[in-house]
Each structure stands twice: as structure tokens, then as C-alpha cells.
């Protein structure tokens, strides 16, 4: 396990109010097939988000699942995006199982959908605005409305769907910036959401930008999350596949990921993969 200093992408002297002691900023990480994943629990992630907001500088959080790690094996640009992010959380049980069998145990699953819920709670308690970007037209609005029912007082800075074309990108970035949101939840699926954040992090005006995959579909009620027991037993992929056969391509990443784990465990790491 290697310690890694979590620091803002742009350097600016810390503010007096920032209680981010140096040792608190050190979050250990492991590398799984060349992809950095932090060894975090939810409390550490939420502390990091608080510190990022206090720093008033842009930060990028990736929620990495097996699909992302498999994609990163052939897509170097995507791998670089993950490895340069300020924080990478283990989004899926597959990542946890793989890391454990490679002798690099992680603490717990910290998924995008769970972080998004906690961010909404923090938005109410600590008073910062959140922008919801992604999913089909109308879904981000409906997700924000449903979340407001759970957390009255949730400060929704703005919403926008995730099916804009490249010619509209500048307008979407301006909409986020003008909303004065502190946190951007980008729900456009891997890798579109990560590429969008990487390309525009400095212009978005937010302190935290993170990819949250299909979360808005879940919040809006369009898609049901797997029952808790399936999540606990690492079977969310089976539920997703049964509900939406179109997910087969993504779900197929899980056996490919497990095959990589098996190969490394029994035949050793490929040169340069760790
Ligand atoms: N999506 C989007 N723009 C696109 C492609 C997808 O906003 O160009 C949305 C899609 O509607 C869905 C989410 O991105 O709400 C991706 O969900 P998925 O469950 O595939 O992501 P995962 O959670 O597996 O990363």
C-alpha cells in the first residue's frame, strides 16, 4: 500500500480556516492493474470533500468499478484520468474482492450513488449548492426533486441532461459555472463523465466534481437499486443485468476483471501493470 498526498490540482496557499493537517491529507492507495484506488471509507471521503470545499480549489473524484479498471487496460487516456484524480474510491464489490485476493485489501465499498446521497445530506447541513448534470432529459430534475423530499433544504444549483453534443459543451460548462455550485455530480456513465470533468475542471467553478454513473436514474425512481442483501453479497451486477440486458457490455467487464485477478494471482503481474 502506498501513501499518497491528496492535494488540490492547482496550488494555492491553504487558508487559515483550513484544518487539513498534513498527516490528515495522506490517504493510502493501492494500484490494481496500474489503476490507483484509495483505501478509504465513507467518513474519509466526506472529510476529503469538506476539505476540498474549504480549499475553494477544483478537485476531481473518480468512483472506480470493474468496468473502469478493465477499460483502463486498453484506454491509456482513461487510465491517466483516473491516476491523476485527487481521490479514487472503490465503487464496486468486484474491486474489493479483486484487491483482497491480490493481497491489497481496501477498506469498504464507497459507491458513487452512496457518496451522492451523503453530499446531499452535507449540502443541507453545511449549506453548499450542488449541480446535477447527466442522464436522459428530465431525469436530473426529477432526481433533484426526489432528493429534496428526503433532504428538504437541499440546495440545487442547477440541472442539465447528459445527452448534449460537443457543440453544446461550452454552454453546459458555463451553466455549471454560473450556477455557483460547489459540487458537481456528473451522471453520464464511464468514461464520458470523467472525460468531461478532466476537460473542464478548471472552468466549471466547482470545488468537487465527481462521476456518479447511473445514480440519477436510481434517485428519480426510473431504475431500482438492487436489494441490500444483493449489494452486501456483491450481486448488484446480476440484478442490473436482469433488469437491463443492455448492461451486458458493462457487466461482462466483471469476468474479465476477475480473469485479470486470477492471472496475476497465479502467474504474476504483467510488467508495468502495478
Ligand atoms: N448517460 C448520459 N449521457 C450519455 C450516456 C449516458 O447522461 O451520453 C447517462 C445514462 O442516461 C445513465 C448514466 O449516464 O443515466 C449511465 O448509467 P450507467 O448505469 O450505465 O452507469 P454506471 O453506473 O454503470 O457507471
List the helices and strands and how they pair.
Layout lengths: L1 E4 L20 E7 L2 E4 L3 H14 L3 E6 L1 H9 L1 H9 L2 E4 L2 H9 L10 H15 L3 E5 L4 H12 L5 E5 L8 H11 L3 E5 L4 H13 L3 E4 L3 H6 L7 H5 L3 H8 L4 H4 L1 H15 L7
Parallel strand pairs: 4-5, 4-9, 6-7, 6-8, 8-9
Antiparallel strand pairs: 1-2, 2-3
This protein binds uridine-5'-diphosphate.
CA-to-CA gap between the ends?
Answer: 11 Å
Q: Estimate the global geometry from the Cα principal axes.
A: globular
What would you call the structural class? alpha/beta
Beta strand count = 9
Specify Rg, calculated over alpha carbons.
Answer: 18 Å
- In what order do the strands lie side by side in the largest sheet? 5-4-9-8-6-7
Order of helices and strands: EEEHEHHEHHEHEHEHEHHHHH
Helix content: 40-55%
Helix count equals 13
Main beta-sheet annotation: 6 strands, parallel
Associated small molecules: uridine-5'-diphosphate
Q: Spans of 5+ residues with little confidence (pLDDT < 50)?
A: 1-24
Number of structural units classed as domains: 1
Q: What's the overall average pLDDT, rounded?
A: 88
Overview of this structure, please?
The structure is a single chain. The protein is built from 13 helices and nine strands. By secondary structure, the chain is an alpha/beta fold. It has one domain. The chain has a six-stranded parallel β-sheet, sandwiched between helices. It has a three-stranded antiparallel β-sheet with strand order 1-2-3, with helices on one face. α6 links the parallel β6 and β7. The radius of gyration is 18 Å and the shape is globular. The N terminus is likely disordered. The site of uridine-5'-diphosphate has 15 residues, from α9.
Amino acid at each position: 500500500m502506498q501513501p499518497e498526498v491528496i492535494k488540490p490540482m492547482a496550488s494555492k496557499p491553504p487558508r487559515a480556516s483550513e484544518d487539513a493537517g498534513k498527516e490528515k491529507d495522506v490517504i493510502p492507495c493501492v494500484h490494481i492493474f496500474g489503476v490507483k484506488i484509495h483505501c478509504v471509507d465513507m467518513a474519509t471521503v466526506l472529510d476529503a470533500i469538506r476539505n476540498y470545499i474549504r480549499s475553494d480549489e477544483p478537485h476531481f473524484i473518480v468512483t472506480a468499478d470493474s468496468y473502469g479498471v478493465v477499460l483502463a487496460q486498453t484506454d491509456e487516456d482513461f487510465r491517466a484520468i483516473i491516476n491523476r484524480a485527487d481521490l479514487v474510491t472503490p465503487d464496486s464489490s468486484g474491486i474489493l474482492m479483486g484487491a483482497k485476493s491480490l493481497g491489497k485489501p481496501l477498506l469498504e465499498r464507497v459507491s458513487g450513488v452512496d457518496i451522492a446521497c451523503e453530499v446531499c445530506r452535507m449540502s443541507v447541513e453545511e449549506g453548499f449548492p450542488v449541480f446535477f448534470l447527466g442522464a436522459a432529459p428530465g431525469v436530473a430534475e426529477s432526481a433533484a426533486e426526489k432528493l429534496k423530499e428526503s433532504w428538504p433544504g437541499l440546495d440545487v444549483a442547477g440541472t442539465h441532461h447528459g445527452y448534449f453534443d460537443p457543440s453544446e459543451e461550452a454552454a453546459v460548462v458555463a451553466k455549471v459555472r454560473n450556477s455557483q455550485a460547489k459540487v458537481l455530480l456528473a451522471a453520464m456513465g464511464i468514461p464520458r463523465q470523467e472525460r468531461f470533468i478532466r476537460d473542464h475542471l478548471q472552468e466549471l467553478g466547482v470545488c468537487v466534481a465527481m462521476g456518479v454513473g447511473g445514480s440519477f436514474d436510481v434517485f428519480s425512481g426510473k431504475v431500482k437499486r438492487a436489494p441490500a442483501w444483493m449489494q452486501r453479497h456483491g450481486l448488484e451486477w446480476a440484478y442490473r443485468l436482469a433488469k437491463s440486458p443492455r448492461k451486458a457490455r458493462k457487466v461482462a467487464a466483471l469476468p474479465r476483471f476477475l480473469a485479470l485477478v486470477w492471472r496475476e494471482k497465479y502467474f504474476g503481474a504483467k510488467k508495468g501493470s502495478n
